[in-house]
Amino acid sequence: MPPRLTSELLLRAYAAGVFPMAGHRGDTEVFWVDPPHRGVLPLDGIHVSRSLARRMRRGGYEVTLDADFSGVVDACADRPETWISASIREAYLALHDRGHGHSVEIWEDGVLAGGVYGVSLGRAFFGESMVSPRTDGSKRALVHLCDHLRRCGFTLFDTQFLTEHLARLGAVEIGRAAYHTRLAAALAGEADIAVLALEPDPAQVVQRMTQTS
After folding, report:
1. CA–CA distances in Å: residue 158 to residues 114, 194, 205
2. How far is Cα 61 from Cα 58, in angstroms, rounded to an integer?
3. Is residue 18 very low, low, confident or very high in pLDDT (cuts 50, 70, 90)?
4. DSSP secondary structure of 11-77
5. DSSP string covering 160-197
6. β strands within the chain, DSSP E
7. Can you spell out the DSSP letters for 144-160?
8. Measured between alpha carbons, how far is 25 from 34 in angstroms, rounded to an integer?
9. Phi/psi of residue 159, each to 5°?
10. Half-sphere exposure (CA, 13 Å, Cβ side) for 112?
């Protein structure tokens, strides 16, 4: 019988460069993934399109850190096909309780408009999933998260796979060996996602991101 998926097992897996997935929502088993090519989002090179920058500068929304971690996880799983099984959900909630699971939420009219969640370890952040109930919700969450991670001293944002959505934001694909080298360097240091408050002004975030991209 495979070991139960626990927060401690998850942390050891991330430190080794692998992450879990389930075949479907009701799957009781977990398989571990170490893809030959890994998606990475450069924290100093995220691309904010003109239309996204305009949308963010208009404001009209609130951004929070860890205000509703379980809500973001559940929203990410609320789709016809998902790899977030019950055991995976439980393990990530335990990671959140231990201070390693984090989420950024975008709120409009008191409703979740977008979000992203992942895991922090050392100076690395491992993005797990994102959701976009409203236009550009997940993109806004990612931009705010990247800005915050960079300000807090993180050096690696692992997106696992490179999707078209992430590529438009500046994500790139690197080989397994190069990824493990970057991971080792990130794990050799320490960063605290809570050392600074999340920037509440979208215009300030856009200005910093456009200056560094």
Report:
1. 19, 19, 21
2. 9
3. very high
4. HHHHHHT-EEE-SSTT----EEE--SEEEE--TT-----HHHHHHHHH---EEEESSSHHHHHHHHH
5. ES--HHHHHTT-EEEEHHHHHHHHHHHHTS---TTSSP
6. 19-21, 31-33, 37-40, 62-65, 101-108, 111-121, 124-131, 156-160, 172-175
7. HHHHHHHHTT--EEEEE
8. 21
9. -100, 5
10. 23
Look over the chain and give the mean of its residue pLDDT values, rounded to a whole number.
93
Q: Which tokens hold the place of 67?
A: 């205000």
Q: Are 133 and 119 in contact (CB under 8 A)?
A: no
- Per the document, the length of the chain is 213
Measure Cα distances from 57 to 41, 132, 140, 187, 207 in Å: 22, 18, 11, 34, 9
What is the token pair recorded at 98?
Answer: 């231990």
130 bridge partner residues: 116
Q: Residue 3: CB partners within 8 Å, gap ≥ 6?
A: 9
Spatial distance between the Cα atoms of 208 and 53, rounded to a whole number of angstroms: 11
Contact 104, 116 (CB under 8 A): yes
The residue type at 51 = S
What kind of fold does domain 37-79+101-212 have according to CATH? Aminopeptidase (3.40.630)
Q: Assign 111 a pLDDT band (cuts: 50, 70, 90).
A: very high
Residue with tokens 């705010």: 144
pLDDT tens-digit series, residues 51-103? 999 999 999 999 999 999 999 999 999 988 887 888 889 999 999 999 999 99
Say if residues 68 and 103 touch (Cβ distance below 8 Å). Answer: yes
Domains of the chain, residue spans: 37-79+101-212
Q: Which two tokens stand for residue 93?
A: 């909630």
